[in-house]
Predict the structure.
Amino acid sequence: MLSALGSVGMAHYRAYLLDQHRHVISVASLQCADEQDARERAQQLVDANDIELWQFDRRIAVFEATTNRTSQTAGHSTPEQTQRHPDK
């Protein structure tokens, strides 16, 4: 099978970026040689949000972000924000 891009046998997958309430923020369309390739590419998309990998109506995997969402949403400050001014 030859696609418009000239790739042979590429399968279509979607990687959904989820917010802290598990709502879709955005979607990436992936053309991959196989499911393992799709898993590797979706895993690379994980940052501060979880990623769900789908092929048509089949959820393949969920890749969880390693950051703690509770600290992000609770308004905790970063070390840069908590530094004291030298005069104090």
Remarks:
- Confidence is low (pLDDT under 50) at residues 1-6, 70-88.
- The beta strands are 11-18, 24-32, 51-55, 58-63.
- Residues 11-67 form one domain.
- The radius of gyration is 19 Å.
